[in-house]
């Protein structure tokens, strides 16, 4: 066999073993174009078409497997939440389960209030409890790694918000991670009069550390209106926000005017999933700095459960949530990196793979995560998945950044290909 054909055959065999069917199809197409024999060209054409079919089947298989994993994770997470709810109900006196007669009472007991008590449990149970008030019942819950670039609120400040006085009812429970939802004494707040009132409430919630000056709100929401019309719109929208929550059962005004601006009523007990997420994340980072791996894992897993999606994703084209959204996403990516690295070191390959995949769904150009995933597959004996992961890394880098993988990534691939890893 001529040397050129021998080299082509060796390259084809390597691509076949790696499951890189698209690249193999391109190689066969190049061989077909150079063929002088029509019969040989026809065989190469047929082989190339079969490779493309294999590639489609590979993608469909991956999609189905990913769907199966997601559904299994959803079932597992949902069952765990059911068990926790039942545990709380069995541990709670029967009289506390029923709502108080007066729905406006600030001391009204209820299910979300009792679930929120779990936030004050020891850190060792953080992974089991911290997400419970906010994680939806129907939703699936290395050195040199990038750190969040936006400064996080102080841990003490977040703890003061996350702590719950179990003798009082929580006035508001707010979801901002994933689909926005608001609850007033466990009652869903759905009766918004127009999008502007809901947007104004989200804005005041996001920047509730201090009053927001009226001019800042006017510039954000009514920039194109005349000053007089803008102020009228602001007053009317604040009124509509108050009315929305009053209708939902709020005993006190949700928005108050102070120091020339507006803010959420500081006398209200407000629980926000994004703030508790940051609190648990900071708790995990602090534990990591102390070398307390167990507490780090518990706290970061508790934060992971809370992250059901990006911050206020329905406001994707607004400018004001961008900084907070990026802050939270960076923290989420960092905790997935830390958890997957910890699971890799502990030889928990299933957990490592799951967290690596979650990270790559958001940032598929992280070569360090691709390498970690390849190693985890290889250690689990799934060489074909490890080799396929390399091909996905190559494709993502070419598509997103127009670059080739680093030598370190190629080195891991070659070791797996040669059964050296």
Description:
The chain is mainly alpha-helical and 421 residues long. It has 3 domains: 3-66, no CATH class; 92-363, Winged helix-like DNA-binding domain superfamily/Winged helix DNA-binding domain (Arc Repressor Mutant, subunit A, Orthogonal Bundle), CATH 1.10.10.10; 364-421, no CATH class. It contains 17 helices and 7 strands. The protein has helices spanning 3-18, 21-34, 38-91, 94-97, 111-116, 126-129, 155-162, 195-206, 214-221, 227-247, 273-290, 293-306, 322-345, 349-362, 367-379, 383-400, 407-417; strands at 172-175, 181-184, 187-188, 212-213, 255-258, 261-264, 270-272. The strands form 2 sheets. The protein has a 4-stranded mixed sheet with strand order 3-2-1-7. A 3-stranded antiparallel sheet has the order 4-6-5. α8 crosses α10 (227-247) and α15 runs parallel beside α17 (407-417). The protein is elongated and about 85 Å long. The chain starts with a helix and ends with a helix. Residues 92-153 and 155-167 have low confidence and may be disordered.
């Amino acid at each position: 066999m001529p040397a050129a054909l021998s080299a082509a055959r060796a390259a084809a065999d390597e691509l076949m073993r790696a499951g890189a069917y698209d690249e193999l199809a391109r190689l066969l197409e190049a061989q077909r174009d150079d063929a002088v024999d029509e019969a040989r060209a026809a065989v190469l054409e047929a082989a190339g078409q079969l490779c493309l079919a294999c590639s489609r089947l590979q993608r469909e298989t991956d999609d189905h497997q990913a769907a199966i994993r997601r559904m299994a994770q959803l079932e597992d997470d949902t069952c765990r939440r059911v068990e926790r709810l039942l545990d709380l109900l069995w541990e709670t006196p029967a009289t506390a389960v029923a709502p108080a007669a007066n729905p406006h009472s600030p001391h009204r007991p209820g299910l979300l209030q009792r679930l929120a008590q779990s936030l004050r449990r020891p850190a060792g149970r953080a992974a089991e409890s911290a997400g419970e008030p906010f994680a939806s019942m129907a939703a699936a819950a290395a050195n040199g790694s990038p750190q969040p670039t936006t400064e996080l609120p102080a841990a003490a400040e977040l703890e003061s918000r996350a702590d719950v006085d179990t003798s009082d009812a929580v006035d508001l429970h707010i979801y901002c991670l994933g689909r926005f939802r608001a609850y007033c004494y466990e009652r869903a707040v759905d009766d918004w009069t127009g999008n502007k009132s809901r947007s104004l409430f989200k804005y005041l919630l996001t920047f509730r550390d201090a009053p927001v000056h009226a001019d800042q709100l006017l510039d954000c929401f009514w920039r194109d209106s005349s000053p007089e019309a803008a102020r009228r719109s602001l007053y009317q929208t604040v009124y509509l926000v108050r009315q929305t929550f009053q209708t939902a059962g709020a005993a006190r005004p949700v928005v108050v005017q102070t120091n020339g601006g507006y803010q959420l009523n500081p006398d209200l007990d407000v629980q926000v999933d994004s703030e508790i997420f940051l609190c648990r994340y900071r708790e995990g980072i602090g534990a990591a700095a102390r070398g307390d791996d167990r507490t780090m894992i518990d706290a970061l897993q508790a934060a992971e459960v809370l992250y059901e999606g990006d911050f206020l994703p329905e406001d994707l084209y607004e400018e004001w949530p961008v900084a907070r959204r990026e802050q939270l996403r960076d923290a989420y990516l960092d905790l997935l990196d830390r958890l997957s690295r910890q699971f890799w070191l502990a030889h928990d390959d299933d957990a490592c793979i799951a967290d690596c995949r979650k990270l790559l769904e958001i940032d598929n150009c992280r070569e360090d995560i691709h390498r970690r995933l390849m190693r985890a597959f290889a250690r689990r004996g799934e060489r074909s998945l490890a080799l396929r992961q390399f091909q996905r890394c190559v494709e993502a880098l070419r598509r997103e950044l127009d670059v080739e993988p680093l030598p370190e990534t190629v080195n891991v691939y070659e070791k797996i290909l040669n059964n050296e890893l």
